[in-house]
Structures are given as C-alpha cells and as structure tokens.
Design a protein that fits this description.
726 residues, alpha+beta, four-stranded mixed sheet, four-stranded antiparallel sheet, SH3-binding, membrane, phosphoprotein
Length: 726
C-alpha cells in the first residue's frame, strides 16, 4: 500500500456518463491509469484516450505534469492528443465553410497546450496553416463581400492557431517562405481589415523580426513605416500597441547604420506627434503594455545619441573646430566685429580670453575638453543647439558669468559637458530597454528634439542653482549633485510637457531642496546616545513582529502573477494567496488580471506550508535555469523566486514588481521561521522604528538625556516612613 502522499483523489468526467470518483496512484504509469478508467466505462483501445484538465485550459495530463494534479481536481477522459491532432488536421481541410470554421476555432483553443501542439506540428500542421494563409484563403475571398464576418473569423482563427503553435518554440521562425511573409504583410497594409486578423498579423510580424535576422530583412522590405502609421490613428488601443511593438522591433533589429535613417523616416512621417495626439493624449487610459512599448520607443530613440556620446572630438578636424568658433561668434558677436583685425598673437590672446569666458577648461584649445567619453561630441552638439535655438538665454548666461569674479563664475563649457554626461546617465543612453519597465515620459513625445530641449532647460537650471548657492569653482561637484537631485525629483512627477518640467524645476529651488533634505534627515534621524540605542534594541523585536504580521496579511490578500511568455501581450495570469490560518497556499490559473479579491474556492491547487522545504531566489530558481530569454534578462532575474517542496517539486514565481517580490519572499521566510532580509524590510524597520522612537521621546523634548543612568541611592537607615494601611 503506497503512502497517502502518492494517492490523489480526483473526479473524472466522460460525456454522457456520470463522473467517477477515483484515487490515482502517482507511482503507476499514466497509461495504466487511463486503461483502468476506460475499462470502467467499457471503452476499448485505451491507447487512443488521454486525461485532460476539465478547466478553462483543457491541458492534457502527461508524465511531466501529472504531479500538478491535486486532491479534488476534476479531470476529463478525452481522445489522445495524437488522435485529436489528426482529426483537426483533417477537418481544417474540409470543403465545408462551416466545418472548416468550427475546426479552426477548436485548433486555436487546443494549440495553447504544448502536448497537443507537438503532435499537430509532427503532422506538419504549421506548413498546412501557412499554405492556407498563402493560397487556401484566396478561394474564399470571392465570398468575402457576402460572408465578410465568416471570412474574417476563418482567417483570424487560422492566424491565432499559428501564433499559439509558434509560441511554444518548437519550430524555428527561419523556416517561413517569402510568400507567407508577403501575405501577412498584406493584411497589415490593407486599409480595411478585420481587427482580430490585423492583431494576429502584427503579432506575427513582431515575432518574425525579433526572432530572426533573416526574416527582419524580408519583413523590412514588405512593411514601411508609412503603412503602419494609419493603425496608430485609430481608436483601438490594442491595435496601436501591436503597431508600436512592430515599429520597436524593426528599430531594435535594424543595423547600426540604418537606425539613423529609420529615425529620419519616423520624423518625416510625424510618428511622435501622431503617438502624442492619438495615444498619450487620448481620453482612454494607457494600459501597461502600451506604456511598456512607449518606454521601449523612448529608450531606442535616445540610444541614437550613443554614437555621438562615444565619439571623441578630433582637435585637428576643422569642421569640428568651426562649431567652437560658432559658439564664440554667437556669444561675442559685436566684440568680434570690433577686433577682427590685428596680429595673430593678439587674435590668439583674444580667443583665449573668450574661451575662458565661455567656461572651457582648456582655454587655448577647447577641443581637448570634448575628448572625454562619455559625453564626447554630444556635449558640443547640445551647446550649439542651445546657442542657436535659445540665443538670448545662451548670451545672457555667458555674459553674466564673464562679468563675475573668476571664482564665482559658473563655467558654461565645463557645466555643459558634465550636464550632458549626467543626463545620459539619468536617461540610460546606450542601455537596452528593460523587459518589465513602463517608465515612459510623456514630455519627450512633445518635441522632435526632446533631448536637446531637455538639456536647454537643465543648463539654465544649473546656472540658476549656481547663483542661489553662491557657489565658487570649488563647489562645482556640489552644485552638480543638487542639480541632479532637482532633475530626478521633477522627473518622478512625470510632467506632461517641457513647460511643465520648467515649472516644476522652478519650484524646486536650492532653498526648497534644503528644506526637503532637512525634512528627510529629521525623519531618518539616528540617535546615537547610549540610552537611545538601548531603547532601540528593546523596541526592535516588537517592530519586526509588526512587519512580519503585515507581510503575512499581504500573503493572505494574495497577488496576481504573470506567466511570462515570448509574446508579452498574451501573457497568462495565475493567483496565489495564503489561507487565513497560515497553513496552506492556494493557487490557480486565471483568464485575466482580477480587479478585486479572488475567493479561495476559485483557486483549485493547494500547497501545505508544512511541505515547503525552502525558498530560492534569482538564478537559483529552476525556471531561471531553463534555456530561454528569461535567463538572460536581469530585471526578470531580480523578480524571480521559487518554493521547493517534497523531493524535487517546485512552484515558480515572477513578481510583478520589486515591492511584491520583497513582500512574498519576506512572508515565505517568516512562515518558515527564517529571517526577513529584503531591502523593503530594512526600509520599513527604519521608518517604523524612527516613528516609534520619536513618539516615546516626545515628553523628553529639550531635556538632556545623560549618557549613563543616574546612580541608585543608598538604602535608608530605617523604614519608619512606611505605614501599614491595614
């Protein structure tokens, strides 16, 4: 008799019969269990049958996933995946439109299961679908006018099945013909196309570009930015999201030499203004996926600056030296006219004097200042843009500083170089986009030269802050730190326009920054005297217990997690929560992200806390060791954790953000009696401890606390002063 842990009690359904309650021995081969079930209903040829989850997924039970079966699960006896695949393979070739449509709908649903997908692909099913797309659908196009909805559904289910099958990564994307690519591109290029067909077509093009350099070349020949732009001008945000995703994919995979050319085309087609008016300023709220795609586009656009950022100036290059001459000419135009004549020595002396006024470190040859990378030539580009497009502000800054004492002048040249470097660091110029980030800034979509305009605003801020701090040349680094803080604080408020950024920076004066710093310092004040330290040590366990209870309460509320796949927009969701008695983890799949609380009874799977052996994080997680994109993604790696239980079983998580990651790892460690070590716990401990300390010390305000406790007085010589009240 096997131990109870190997026995799972389930219900098994069969169409037209009463469900059976069975005990499944997990040590027995699955084929034996299926045979036993078939014999119970007097069904022969048990090898033609299989067990399936009787939920919305309808996934087949295999030897690999059978351990996921939990007590109380409902299974269904059905035809084997090979039989089902063969039947659907035949049915989708039916001459009847209705039969074909129904079978393609079934295929689209079944293809989500990797077991079925493998069997269908083994029958050369993907080739059949591509042939149907290339030529098979043409004979139905004559019926399109009279049966347009039916034709749209037919094509939609065909493409959906194709996308689901390809998503399993069984077949390489490099195997597809030019005719197939042309057909898919044709659906995207048509002005009036069924929404579902357009969505699938855009998803296929994105996957082709991202997964194959060869297919990128072919897709780039078939699709132009001009053909994608109209899809952004509609009102369907899903179509807009897929369209931006395709543009990002083309941008990302384009060779270095073609990216600038592509950026020029995007500017010509006014992509930025179209996104601004139809997406960012649309009355509909921007969903997470669109926010991610806009963030990716923002990063890829700023990455075009990397080449200039990493290019050193050649002091011997006359064209580059002419830019410096132009900066001097704009700043000192009148003076230059008056001093145009004279000896070479006088002109050199005049140039040196002017370059010093412009704030260059090397007064004799300013070109040397731009040999540092980063920011390289990008700093000079920004300075020239400021001088030409904001000439009055440029001249005012240069002349203001040239009229101050040497030690109090704010060096425009040096400031511009350091500021450009700082802005590149803030915007992470040259780094690839993060997989999970949604941090786009609407204001960068309001101007074609947003980085240069951003620089122009910040260089004026730097000059203003320099004056407010009454800084000298020795304070240069301090000023840069304050300016960085001003910029970061303004960016966190996500200004919608560059004018809003100016307004917010105007309010974040040096005086305001000092007030904020003082307030934060008071909130984080760390008392160092011995009595205070002793009080802290006494309070700390109480605070830690409070944090522990908060973490466990959050686990009881539960969290929705993503099952990240190669196609982000079609991610699956699952939910996990801790039972109120802290003894069981309930979890299960969801169709979509829930808006409210998910009840326990809707989560079919359970994991007793007593069975948990350990919690692992990051690269130690089993799903981070598997081959695939997730392994290479640093952001996903930092959000991954797994629960190991029984002998070699595990439950894998990828937290939606760092906050949820800390909550769950802390809560699970608390359940296991281990220390909570996350950054979030440290932050909570500091905040709560500081608040509790201040509350307890309120009555001691303005009272000096001695370093040592007062001495205990001597015992009295007698106790006559004690009265017996009885």
């Amino acid at each position: 008799m096997p131990p109870p842990s190997d026995i799972v009690k389930v219900a098994i359904e069969w169409p037209g019969a009463f469900p059976k309650l069975m005990e499944i021995d997990q040590k027995k081969p699955l084929s034996s269990i299926i045979k036993e079930v078939c014999e119970g209903w007097s069904l022969g040829n048990h090898e033609n049958f299989a067990l399936q989850n009787a939920d919305s997924t309808n996934f087949y039970i295999t030897e690999k996933n059978r351990n996921d079966i939990k007590n109380g699960s409902i299974l269904r006896l059905t035809t084997s995946p090979s039989q089902t695949a063969a039947q659907l393979h035949e049915r989708i070739q039916s001459s009847s439109m209705d039969a074909k449509l129904e079978s393609l709908k079934d295929l689209a649903n079944s293809s989500r299961d990797v077991t079925f997908a493998q069997e269908f692909i083994n029958l050369d099913g993907i080739s059949l679908l591509t042939q149907m797309v290339e030529s098979g659908t043409e004979r139905y196009q004559k019926l399109q006018k009279i049966m347009k909805p039916c034709f749209g559904d037919l094509l939609s289910f065909t493409l959906t099945a194709f996308v689901e099958l390809m998503d399993h990564g069984i077949v390489s994307w490099d195997t597809f013909s030019v005719a197939f690519i042309k057909k898919i591109a044709g659906y995207v290029n048509k002005s009036a196309m069924d929404t579902a067909v357009l969505q699938r077509s855009l998803a296929i093009l994105e996957s082709m570009v991202l997964n194959s350099q060869d297919l990128y070349q072919k897709v780039a020949q078939e699709i132009t930015i001009g053909q994608l732009i109209p899809h952004l001008q509609g009102t369907d945000q899903d179509i807009q999201t897929y369209t931006v995703a395709v543009i990002n994919a083309l941008f990302l995979k384009a060779p270095e030499e073609k990216r600038q050319e592509m950026a020029h085309i995007l500017a010509q087609k006014q992509l930025r203004s179209i996104i601004l008016s139809n997406v960012i300023r649309s009355p509909k709220p921007i969903n997470d996926e669109m926010a991610h795609q806009l963030y990716v586009l923002q990063v890829l656009t700023f990455n075009l600056l990397e080449d200039r950022m990493m290019t050193k100036m050649d002091p011997q290059d006359q064209a580059q030296r002419d830019i410096i001459f132009e900066l001097r000419r704009i700043a000192f135009d009148v003076e230059c006219e008056q001093n145009n004549s004279g000896s070479i020595e006088k002109r050199k002396s005049m140039y040196t004097r002017d370059y010093k006024k412009l704030g260059f470190i090397n007064h004799v040859n300013p070109a040397v200042d731009f040999t540092q990378i980063p920011p390289g030539m990008l700093a000079l580009d920004n300075m020239l843009y400021f001088a030409r497009h904001h000439q009055d502000a440029y001249i005012r800054i240069v002349l203001e500083n040239s009229s101050r004492e040497d030690k109090h002048e704010c060096p425009f040249g040096r400031s511009s170089i350091e500021l450009t470097k700082m802005l590149c660091e803030i915007l992470k110029v040259g780094e690839l986009p993060s997989e999970n980030c949604h941090d786009f800034h609407p204001m960068f979509f309001t101007h074609d030269r947003s980085f240069e305009e951003f620089f122009c605003i910040c260089i004026q801020l730097l000059n203003k802050t320099w004056k407010e701090m009454r800084a000298t040349s020795e304070d240069f680094n301090k000023v840069m730190q304050v300016v960085k803080e001003q910029i970061l604080r303004a960016l966190t408020q996500k200004p919608n326009s560059l004018d809003q950024l100016k307004s917010r920076l105007q309010n974040l004066s040096y005086t305001e920054i000092l007030k904020i710093r003082q307030s934060e310092r008071m909130n984080q004040e760390d008392f160092q005297s011995r009595p205070i330290l002793e009080l802290r040590e006494k309070i700390q366990p109480e605070i830690m217990e409070l944090i522990k209870q908060q973490r466990l309460n959050r686990l009881c509320d539960g969290t929705c997690f993503r099952k990240i796949s190669s196609r982000r927009r079609q991610d699956k969701f699952w939910y996990c929560r801790l039972s109120p008695n802290h003894k069981v983890l309930h979890y299960g799949d969801l169709e979509e992200n829930p808006q409210g609380e998910v009840p326990h009874d809707s989560l079919q799977d359970k994991l007793p806390v007593a069975d948990i052996k350990s919690v692992v994080t990051g690269k130690d997680c089993p799903h981070m060791k598997e081959k695939g994109a997730l392994k290479q993604n640093k952001e996903v790696l930092e959000l991954a954790f797994s629960i190991l239980y029984e002998s070699d079983e595990y439950l894998n998580f990828i937290a939606p953000d760092k906050h949820e990651y800390c909550v769950w790892t802390d809560g699970l460690n608390a359940l296991l009696g281990k220390e909570m070590t996350s950054d979030f716990t440290k932050s909570d401990m500091d905040t709560l401890l500081s608040m509790e300390m201040k509350l307890r010390l309120l009555d001691l305000e303005n009272i000096q606390i001695p370093e040592a406790p007062p001495p205990i007085p001597k015992e009295p010589s007698n106790y006559d002063f004690v009265y017996d009240c009885n």
